[in-house]
Amino acid sequence: MLRLLWRGTKTSAYLKRWDERFTLKLPASDSTKSLIWIHAVSMGEVEASRPLISSLQALYPGQQLLISTMTPTGSARVSQLYGQSVLHCYLPYDLPLFTKRFLSAINPSVGI
Q: Is 77's pLDDT higher than 90?
């Protein structure tokens, strides 16, 4: 958390959507549809996952895709590439309470 605060002093985008990192706010998913969760840490991993995401969208059009990232540039790239066709959030801090709350809230069919 301290690292994130420090990064926020240099790049304010790190402080935006802070509540997602504590699982206080997560994207609203459709509980009647299965959800595939893909974690791509940064913009580079978002770029690398493009073929996978395109294939999943083509093969499973009835399922929701959630892409989690850790950086503002990764978040921006998800928005640029996919707009509203996927859900996006920042991955919460890797602490038991937040992890449990995150997985319980999104209830993924599969995580990649």
A: yes
pTM of the model: 0.87
Stated length of the chain: 112
The CATH number of 19-111, from 3.40.50.11720, 3.40.50.620, 3.40.50.720, 3.30.565.10, is 3.40.50.11720
Q: For tokens 């929701």, name the residue.
A: 64
**How many beta carbons lie within 10 A of that of residue 104, not counting itself?**
9
Say what the pLDDT of residue 8 is.
61
User: Is 45 annotated as catalytic?
Assistant: yes
Ramachandran class of 24: left when φ > 0, alpha when ψ lies in -120 to 50, beta otherwise: alpha
18-67 pLDDT tens trace = 788 888 888 888 888 999 999 999 999 999 999 999 999 999 999 999 99
List the catalytic residue out of 45, 57, 63, 93.
45
